[in-house]
Design a protein that fits this description.
Layout lengths: L22 H17 L6 H12 L2 H4 L4 H13 L6 E4 L14 H7 L4 E7 L3 E6 L7 H13 L5 E5 L8 H8 L8 E7 L5 E5 L14 E5 L6 H11 L4 E4 L9 E7 L2 E6 L1 E4 L16 E2 L5 H13 L6 H19 L1
Parallel strand pairs: 3-4, 4-7, 7-8, 8-12
Antiparallel strand pairs: 1-10, 2-3, 5-6, 5-11, 9-10
Length: about 325
């Protein structure tokens, strides 16, 4: 039998936080929607993007967010469902009088050798170039590229390592590619929504130093390879000038511009799209698909092994052939493990 205890039931007084999105944040979302409607390159996607932001602005997820950084992260995550080049971020205003202002991507590239972190000649006379970003083309970066390409100018093959390359400026892809073709070659085009015009990117007629027009080219990729790095890989692959080895890339083919929304909020809106002259399309969402598929970790060994297996067939001195055969055996064992 149930027994009921006589007494007083005390209900604690509970205060509930205001779960409405602040007017300031609603205004930011409204302004963001306006800019996307005006600038986003795939106009047919705009209704879905704007509807998603409208729904998000009254969602519980956004209502429960307190900090500006978390608010920006929710917006950013929502936008990236439509295009990986979308971005929305927040950063606290720098204190007046301090020298701790944040370093931009371009400033970091300028400070760190235009992104080139390693250049060497491997056993078998194979050039290896590892770089993490595509710098803007200027006198400094042009000289750095010339120095890098000079290092591998007499190599029998060259491996470009883009596994940790997040992209950058398409003109750097244009400059490096110019070393790899004898004749002026159409690499890529970009359609700009704001003007309705299409810019064509061709190899430059002249470069500093020696060209590598007959040298086999291999490109290493991972799922972190993105944007201009994908442009480089996709363009050379479509022109049958390079073999791509590794993982399918990130899938970002839409250049973006940054807009300041005030109070530390900055949005990146894709306003152009790549159009490859061979495929008539691009790598948006689908990524660049490797010719030789492997994990990010095995990509180098697989590419190097493939290069050497082809080089050993050429007419070589005894010492050169012996060096290659020994390295092939070593790489074969590593790939089997």
């Amino acid at each position: 039998m149930l027994k009921f205890l006589a007494g007083v039931l005390f209900i604690p007084y509970v205060t509930f936080a205001d779960t409405t999105v602040s007017p300031d944040r609603l205004e930011i979302i409204s302004n963001l929607k306006q800019e996307i409607a005006k600038q986003y390159v795939l106009e047919d996607k705009n209704p879905a993007i704007l509807d998603s932001l409208k729904i998000l602005s009254s969602s519980e997820e956004l209502q429960l967010v307190s900090g500006d950084k978390e608010f920006a992260e929710v917006i950013d995550s929502n936008l990236k469902k439509f295009d990986k080049h979308f971005s929305f971020s927040w950063k606290a205003n720098e204190k007046t009088g301090t020298n701790q202002s944040s370093e931009s991507y371009w400033e970091k590239l300028e400070r760190k050798n235009s992104g080139f972190s390693k250049v060497e000649i491997l056993a078998g006379n194979v050039g290896y170039i590892d770089f993490w970003g595509f710098d803007k083309v200027n006198s400094n970066s042009t000289e750095r590229v010339a120095n890098v390409m000079a290092m591998v100018s007499d190599a029998s093959a060259v491996i470009f390592d883009l596994r940790n390359n997040g992209g950058g400026h398409p003109e750097m892809s244009q400059l490096i590619s110019s070393y790899l073709f004898k004749n002026r070659t159409h690499l890529n085009s970009i359609y700009w929504r704001y003007s309705g015009e299409v810019d064509e990117f061709w190899t430059f007629r002249k470069v500093k130093g020696k060209k590598l027009v007959d040298v086999p080219i291999y490109i290493l990729t991972s799922n972190k390879t993105f944007s201009a790095a994908e442009d480089f890989a996709y363009s050379l692959q479509s022109l049958k000038r390079a073999v791509v080895v590794g993982e399918v890339t990130g899938g970002g083919a839409h250049p973006m511009r940054f807009l300041d929304f005030g109070n530390g909020f900055v949005a990146g809106i894709p306003y152009g799209k790549a159009i490859n002259p061979v495929t008539k399309t691009n790598w948006e969402w689908v990524g660049v698909k490797p010719d030789l598929i492997s994990s990010k970790e095995d990509a180098f060994n697989l590419a190097y092994f493939t290069v050497l297996e082809n080089l050993v067939k050429a007419e070589l001195s005894f010492a050169a052939k012996n060096e290659i055969e020994n390295k092939v055996e070593e790489l074969a064992m590593a790939l089997r493990d």
